[in-house]
Specification:
By secondary structure, this protein is of the alpha/beta class. The chain has eight helices and seven strands. 41% of the residues lie in helices and 16% in strands.
């Protein structure tokens, strides 16, 4: 699956976490496929290294917290058109149980699950307003499908498992409106940050961000007419 095999011509797509490594790959693929991209961002510093910031079909909007319902509703309420909403924003905070206090759990829930919930809700309401159906794609994690590998990152595993449940339930609720909701569940991805954090790891087995982006693009595209409520493993050879 490549960007040119799916058609997003003049379709409006939100990408949260769009200035990160995966977000940059997803945005590049969407632009190649003809999409108009709306990226909420939190850190102005992230824009300095974002290669698509000057593209005429990229709209960058400052939004504080993606778990802040009022801010997110304002952002989505300002969109006149919306075909797809892709939710890449999140954070990984590994810690053994002894160091995983309530504050860490709540932080992981806010960053990963609550942000996906709030953005999914706002996107669905915006799509209903437009009345043309749409697509929502969330990001779970391999730990959500295989919680036994979540030792050492229990709070993260709980949060991403919630994203998986959100996707399945919302996929059933919205299917009758032509809004298909899915998620991907990647393993460790091949990014500069992950390589720096794990310099002795087998990089070649990790999925490339461009490969993960291709899966996301299909799920969020009009070409996907049947898949909903799915949490799709994107493991590469890991």
């Amino acid at each position: 699956m490549t960007a040119t095999s799916v058609d997003y011509e003049n379709r409006h797509v939100v990408v949260t976490g769009g200035t990160g490594a995966l977000g940059t790959a997803v945005t590049a693929a969407l632009l190649e496929a003809g999409a108009i991209c709306h990226l909420p961002y939190r850190s102005a510093a992230a824009l300095d290294r974002f290669p698509h910031r000057e593209h005429r079909r990229v709209s960058l909007v400052a939004v504080g917290e993606l778990a802040d319902e009022a801010e997110v509703m304002r952002f989505y309420g300002g969109l006149q058109q919306l075909w797809a909403s892709i939710h890449l924003a999140g954070a990984y905070a590994p810690a053994p149980l002894a160091e995983s206090d309530k504050a860490l759990l709540m932080s992981q829930l806010e960053t990963n699950l609550v942000s996906a919930y709030v953005c999914s809700r706002a996107a669905a309401l915006a799509m209903r307003r437009v009345g043309a159906g749409g697509r929502i794609v969330n990001v779970a994690a391999r730990q959500a499908l295989e919680p036994r590998i979540g030792g050492g990152s229990v709070a993260y595993t709980i949060a991403k498992s919630g994203v998986s449940a959100l996707t399945t339930a919302l996929g059933a609720e919205l299917a009758g409106e032509g809004i298909l909701v899915n998620a991907i569940a990647p393993s460790i991805m091949d990014t500069p940050g992950n390589r720096a954090a794990m310099p002795k790891a087998p990089f070649d087995s990790w999925p490339k961000v461009e490969e993960v982006a291709a899966t996301i693009l299909y799920l969020a595209s009009p070409a996907n007419r049947a898949t909903r409520g799915a949490v799709v493993p994107v493991y590469g050879n890991a």
